[in-house]
Each structure stands twice: as C-alpha cells, then as structure tokens.
C-alpha cells in the first residue's frame, strides 16, 4: 500500500535524516507519542527505518505491551504465531486497547528485519496493588528498591493534570501510579541497554512519560546518553 505523507510528515522525516548522525551518539532514544496520533506513529516508523537503513543496531521497547507477555511478543516477531493469536495472548485489547493499526506497521517492519521488540509496561495487576498499598509498600520485581521519588517539576505537572481531572480523588495513589509507570519502564530500558551494550534502545512511549523516564535512567546510570524525540 502506498502511503501518502502530509507535508508535515515530509518535514519531520527531513529532520530525522538531518539528525541521524546526532542520534548515533546516544545509548537510548525515547520517542514520544500521542497514542491516537497517526503522524506520531509514522514518525516512529520512519525513525526506525532510517536507523536500520544506515546499519545502526537497535532494539525496540514498547509501552503498549506488559512485561509478563514477552514470550508472545517474541513469538510474533519470529513469525511463530498469527496477529490474531498475538493480540489474544498478550491481552492487547484489555491491557492497552488503542487500535492496533497504530502499531501494526512498526511491528511488521521489525518482523521483516528481525529486530527484537521488548514489552516495557508494568502489569495492570501491579498498579492495582500500588493504588491500594502505596508504591513503597508494594513488593514488585518490576520496581526494584530503592524507588526514586518524583521531581519537583513532575509534581507540578501532575498537580496541573489533577486540576483538569477533578474526578481523581486520591492524589497520593495517582502520584504513586505515575511514578511506578515511569520507573518500571525506565528500569526495563536500563536492563535492555545493559543486556545489549552495542545496541541503541529505541523506546516508544507516551509523551507524558519521556522526561520522567529520562530522569530515572540517569539516576540508574548517570553516564547513559538519552535523547528525547517528542
């Protein structure tokens, strides 16, 4: 199928090409998205294609899949199971829910080019425990201790979110869940880089997570070179 790119996307792809050499100097690239924005997903795919085209070794991390379902992500990328079985076994509709069309081309490119794809997200069940007990009282392998705290800027941003969402009544639980989300993904990305030292980790996450993940990555390893592409 021929893709008709808007002038905006053509412009963005030009920026990606211009930045290719710059991106090569980074250990981790966090590519932010608005989950329902097709332009964001096209940019993600073009960035992956460009890095692959010029021989950069990459692995892809995706917020859209929860870590316990990694086996089925592996099986799908390796061509062992169908798309239908993959979505069923990862419980995609229940645990993520956004239309799979936004990610289909990215995963298909990874399949065709044998690029490893990793689940980044913390399981929903863990977030329920954190909501009930608090992040520091929840024992979770996805949140190794010591658990970092939110920065002042992150707290201010979350306070603004709360102003626009008066239906959220439990402020502490809301803050704990946001921290758990960022920390669990950051720690998984950190592990992926340690396990694949010669590779760039390209992580596809919501734009609201990129700054928090970057900050935590540099707490875990101050020498990591992290680039945010929002």
From TrEMBL:
Q: Which residues form the Haem-binding uptake Tiki superfamily ChaN domain?
A: 21-211
Which InterPro entries did the record assign? Cofac_haem-bd_dom
Pfam families referenced in this protein's UniProt entry, alphabetically: Cofac_haem_bdg
**What is the protein's name according to its record?**
Haem-binding uptake Tiki superfamily ChaN domain-containing protein
Species, as recorded: Sulfurihydrogenibium azorense (strain DSM 15241 / OCM 825 / Az-Fu1)
């Amino acid at each position: 199928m021929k893709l008709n790119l808007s002038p905006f996307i053509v412009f963005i792809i030009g920026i990606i090409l211009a930045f290719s050499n710059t991106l090569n100097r980074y250990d981790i690239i966090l590519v932010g998205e608005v989950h329902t924005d097709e332009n964001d997903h096209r940019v993600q795919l073009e960035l992956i294609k460009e890095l692959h085209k010029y021989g950069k070794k990459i692995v892809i991390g995706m917020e859209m899949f929860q870590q316990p379902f990694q086996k089925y992500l592996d099986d799908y990328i390796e061509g062992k199971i169908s798309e239908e079985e993959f979505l069923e076994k990862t419980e995609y509709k229940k645990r993520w829910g956004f239309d799979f069309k936004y990610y289909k081309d990215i995963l298909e490119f990874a399949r065709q080019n044998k690029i490893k794809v990793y689940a980044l997200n913390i399981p929903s069940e863990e977030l329920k425990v954190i909501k009930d007990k608090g992040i520091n009282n929840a024992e979770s392998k996805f949140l190794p201790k010591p658990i970092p705290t939110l920065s002042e800027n992150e707290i201010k941003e979350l306070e603004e979110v709360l102003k626009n969402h008066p239906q959220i009544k439990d402020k502490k639980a809301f803050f704990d869940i946001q921290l758990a989300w960022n920390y669990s993904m950051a720690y998984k990305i950190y592990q992926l880089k340690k396990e694949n030292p010669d590779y760039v980790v390209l992580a596809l996450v919501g734009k609201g997570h990129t700054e928090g993940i970057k900050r935590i990555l540099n707490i875990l390893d101050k020498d990591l070179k992290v680039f945010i592409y929002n």
